[in-house]
Amino acid sequence: MRIVLLGTGGYHPNERRHTACLMIPELGIIFDAGTSFFRVPHHLQTRNLQIFMTHAHLDHIVGLSFFLVPMLSDQVDSVKVYGEESKLAAIRTHLFSDEIFPVLPDYEFISLPETVEVAGGGTLRHLPLEHPGGSIGYRVDWPDCSMAYVTDTAHPEQHLEFVQGVDLLIHECYFPDEMSEWADKTGHTHTTPVAELARDAHVGKLILTHIDPQCAGDDPIGIKVAQKIFPNTILGEDLMEIDF
Question: Which InterPro entries match (predicted)?
């Protein structure tokens, strides 16, 4: 299984990172639709897509407005967009309002049931997270591998059981430890608690993503700090491909 990190930044794009979107091309599974969603057509391998939204903040949804041409030009047969009903309603009402973007692509919006069967024989579950306005984390278990995607959340230790034992954990790490006070204020995470979560949950690999766009250098979150706690930690970069 291979996942492509189409966008690894938070809040707004910078020269190095676009905002959140992850894709498993061979299965047509996508998580979030940030500014990096414009890259999806270049990675299409299926005629049907399942998009799972964590929440409705603009940096995670704006890319849904980028997919009109691929749908009109018959590059896909169907696109199902899953999320909490209130968040889907906000997307339909506001992002696709007549004044902002007057043509709604032919998406099928689906309120998340308790579990979703996904391509490849996998089962997807979700968990509410602590974040202003609310967010949800995802876990998918296939017969021979598993992954979890957790972003826009505070207090990683609260979802220890949910991510227990996954082969791949993709988790936000917006701030370095020296900015932990800002993490608490904004409902985000910083380096040490995320690495401790990976260690305590016995995951296979940790990818850090949703990085503060004001920090565009090579090490915006203190990767060596994380690796000292959980050695198999990687700082996510746009267009990075990860096997799991």
Answer: Metallo-B-lactamas, RibonucZ/Hydroxyglut_hydro
Q: CA end-to-end span of the chain, whole Å?
A: 6
Is the pTM higher than 0.90? The answer reads: yes
Rg (CA), the chain: 17
| CATH homologous superfamily for the domain 2-243 | Ribonuclease Z/Hydroxyacylglutathione hydrolase-like (3.60.15.10)
CA angle centred on 36, ends 34 and 42, rounded to 5°: 135
Collapsing DSSP states into helix, strand and coil, what is residue 91? helix
Nearest to 35 by CA among 18, 53, 11: 18
Is 224 exposed, middle or buried (CB count within 10 Å of its CB: 0-12, 13-18, 19+)? exposed
Q: For the chain, what percent of residues have pLDDT higher than 90?
A: 97
> In the β-sheet with 240-243, what is the strand arrangement from edge to edge?
108-111, 78-83, 48-52, 29-31, 21-24, 2-7, 240-243
Nearest residue to 116 (alpha-carbon basis) of 166, 70, 165, 82: 82
Pairing of strands 205-209, 233-235: parallel
Taking the C-alpha atoms of residue 29 and residue 72, their distance in angstroms, rounded to an integer, is 20
90-126 pLDDT tens trace: 999 999 999 999 999 999 999 999 999 999 999 999 9
E strand residue ranges, the chain: 2-7, 21-24, 29-31, 48-52, 78-83, 108-111, 115-118, 122-129, 135-141, 146-150, 168-172, 205-209, 233-235, 240-243
Bridge partners of 141, per DSSP, are 123, 146
